[in-house]
Amino acid sequence: MGRLVAQPLLWFVVISLCIFILDDLMPEARDEIIVSDAQKDRIALLWKTQTGADASIQELDSLVDNWIQEEVLFREALRLGLDQDDSIVRRRLVQKLGFIAEAQMGSEPEISELESYYSQNIVNYTLPLRYSFRQLYFTDQVSAQAQLGQAKLGEDISSTGTTSMLNDAYAFRSELDIDATFGSGFSSQLIGLSVLEWQGPIKSSFGYHLVYVTNIHAEEAAPLNSVLDSVGSDYQQFQKMNARQRYVDALLDDYLIRYEGQ
Q: Do residues 83 and 143 share a domain?
């Protein structure tokens, strides 16, 4: 019996069996989820933001229960590595961090900053060449040509033409605006037309037109006070992009970038 007790293999088997039994009897350690008052306040605030009303006691209890279930699922997903190599999760995390970086852009800009930004980006606030003109619409070229002949003889043809949904007159319209109304290429036919006389016929996607150009407005920069809201919005976006890039550049300083094969 003494020789049996002294056998190392026997003790190894006995100790292993004891460890197995104890491990089976002991409850598994579980992560702790703490629902703090601050977390409950955040849940309640989110509810009020979405609904416009304070959550009742029953609603808040339900919201907290939902948050706990979501937290459990979130932790289990991380434990299983479901966040790894997932492009959607990757983009969402990058987007969220980008929002944090953009929030560091600083306070509201001074008017001097907006003036400087406006001057440096004046091309974005320059109005293009624009036309003011009247038009007469005809369904066929022959009728349009006949009325043009009457106009050249000094006749008033302003009340002629076929009724349509088009306006009789347009003011300060850019080439882009004109093509959006009359069809692609219509604005190019206005180039070189004389002012204050009927000319044409000019073809559109609707038919034919006689055009009376009343004014051609050259390119000009819009005064700052007339586009101040747009400049302010553009400058805010510019500041966000700068803040984000500064944040990324600072992070890049902490990394060594290597390319495989180089």
A: no
Provide the token pair at 184.
């692609």
Beta-bridge partner residues of 131: 173, 216
- Is residue 195 domain-resident? yes
Can you give the residue range of the structural domain that contains 142?
125-221
**Residues 196-251 pLDDT 10s:** 999 989 999 999 999 999 999 999 898 898 889 999 989 988 888 888 888 888 87
Neighbouring-strand partners of residue 215: 132
Same-domain pairing of 184 and 134: yes
Q: Which residues of 204-232 are buried (b: 16+ CB within 10 A; e: fewer)?
A: bebbbbbbbbeeeeeeeeeeeeebeeebb
* Shared domain check, 212 and 132: yes
Number of domains in the chain: 2
Write down the pTM of the prediction: 0.55
